[in-house]
Amino acid sequence: MEATEKTAGTKIKVGIPRALHFYRYFPFWKKLLEELDVEIVLTTNTNKKIVEEGVTHGFGELCIPVKIYYGHVMKLIRENPALDFLFVPRYVSEVKESFFCPKFLSLPDVIKIIPKAPKLLNFEVNVKEFPIATAAVELAKQLGKSQSKGLNAYKKAQEYFNEYHKFLREGASVNHALRLVERDSPFTLPKKKHKGDIKFLLLGHAYNIFDTFINLDFQKKLRDQGVEVFTIENLPESIFKVPVIVNKRLRNYWIHEEEIMQSIRYFLTKGRKEIDGVVFLVSFACGPDSLISELIKRDMKVVGLPFLEIIMDEHSGEAGLLTRVESFVEMVRRKKRKLLELEAKQRIEADQKIDTSLV
Amino acid sequence: MGPNWVAFKTLFECLDLEVIVPDPTNRAAIKVGVKYSPEFVCFPFKATLGDFKNALDKGADTLVMAIDCGPCRFGFYASVQERLLRDMGYDNFNLIPLDQADLLQFHWVKSLEEISGLEGLAKYPKFVKAVMFFLKKAKLLADIQTAEGLFRAYERNQGDTTRTVKDLLNHLDQTNTLPELRKFQSFIKDAFRQLDVDKSRHPMRTAISGEIHISLEPYVNLDVRRKLGEMGVEIHQNLSLWDWITHKFHLNYHRKWLEHLSRPHVPMDIGGECVWVLGEYIDRSRGGFSGFVHCYPFTCMPEVTARTIITNKLKKMYDLPIIFFSFDEQSGQEGFRTRLEAFVDLMQSRREQMLKTQNITIEEISKKFYDSNGTKFFHECLKIIQNN
User: Fold this and answer.
1) What's B200-387's CATH class?
2) Of A88, A167, B78, B113, which residue is the least packed, with the fewest Cβ within 10 Å?
3) Is B301 on the interface with A (CB under 8 A)?
4) According to CATH, what is the number of the domain B17-117?
5) Between chains, do A246 and B79 touch, taking CB under 8 Å as contact?
6) Domain range for A284
7) CB-based contact B70 A294, cutoff 8 Å
8) What is the ipTM of this complex?
């Protein structure tokens, strides 16, 4: 019965939880799935209830983003019983000789054992073994579509994704861009551009920075203080071409962390003057970040760039966070003012010297 | 990692190097590790950092650390630790990583060259000797571990086995000729034959698995093997240095079998021991074990995944009691002991229940169990107990 109903025109319904890789790959998924005639069901933004549900399901030692993912999946299952599939991609490696965090590698395996979970759509990105196009063809097969349709969908999705990234590099914030993608509206920059007297680089995983619940809307907090914020996604592509050498024998194999390190290296060397401070958002029990943030902290000490590391979990208190941010911003601002005064003084002195020498 | 310093010491001594063995991991080392490490890095990082500092203080100038390029944190250990040690003020040392990603690629030969400073053709006889002795000793260590797990459950005077193992380790460390090493296995058997054992006992059988450093280092895992053994539980632990090395030489068919078992649940190696822990859990539950102990460092990414899958799915499917221990510097002895006692009680009552309902005698259970479990050496040890 169901199968005949499907052919009669109703689309296949696929649920996507608004967590983890959503903030990084959603435009790509959306285009890919829509080209394959699929109706996408999204969850709402993270809220307290979702977090609570996720925390009760996942046990203590998991990192908070994964717990939130659980919460979203539970919500999807509960609110949409008619869901045909759940889209939980397995990201193994996006670039050769690299990996994602082990928790992403086994994400479908831990999701499929949730009680009452619908079937998962298998979409495995593993460039070591096969190209992404193969994964797209596999995906099309599972949805009952032809191979060529899958390939076409992949091409279109990739084009759209490139366009999306170009838009981000023009300076749009990811949240704004994602909103546009959801509404299917064209990419236009917001009319009112935020300006501030100091510039911060906000580091961290996309799911920590752009999920406004988990980080208590950190970006807005910074903007309220008159800080101009930008993220890794806004940086020019050229930064990410050369790999970072931590140690002559170590090849960094985590792709997100590699991007973080690359952008940091840029600001430690050439772009030193372009920013006034760095804020790194880390979720508690995050494996890769625990080591990366240590390396970055040590580099920052050498160069003398202000650096704030904020560790988040489900018990984050707003007041304490605000105090830390305010004091950090104040400190950076004072430092900058002093630096500017010093420069001005030097310039005046230099001018005087020239004057006296002329006389 | 526990007694494995014996094997590594031989490896480097055969290359004409002086080996400085750091003190067994202790409170001071861990304190140092915790002080200088990032806050929530996994526990082996902190413990090994403390050990390195200890070795440097004793006068070492070259440190050797295994590295991997898997998805978990382990690959970063060597370089981050080097950075930390340099920032701590140690300048005159050289940290050489020993690539263990795939031993058949023979990257380790280059590392050995670098460590030993030997060049030309003359190095090869030494290399062969070193590697041979290393492998022999690793195998013997695994054998000692097997015998230890079995005998402790049967010993009459508590502490005998621990003493025997200590003597054996010292003796193995002193043994440096091939004929003696060949005979060492029977030497182990002789040593254990001296023990006063009570063969009328019917101990519980528990398997221990988990992250390799935590499972093998007795200070870090609060000596879970000894504590369980002294409660009268037989310990079966496949995990050892030998097991890992044969796996990395692609010769460990037992691990291949475990991978096969866990494939429906996790289809790929995600780092750590996740895949093999799942496989072992399934394997052990079929083998008639009474319990399973899973040890891992706090927030270890792959093992946490394994735990999630076991608690949510495998436990319902295979019904083997399992206890999880996540270790870090905050572990407390007494709470740990209480949990172990409760676990042993649980296994005991389950066995009694089984005896009542299934109408079989305890001898039959034992026979069935030993027929389907254990290596050749294990059965030889078993014979020693039965003939005592």
Assistant:
1) alpha beta
2) B113
3) yes
4) 3.40.50
5) yes
6) 194-345
7) no
8) 0.86
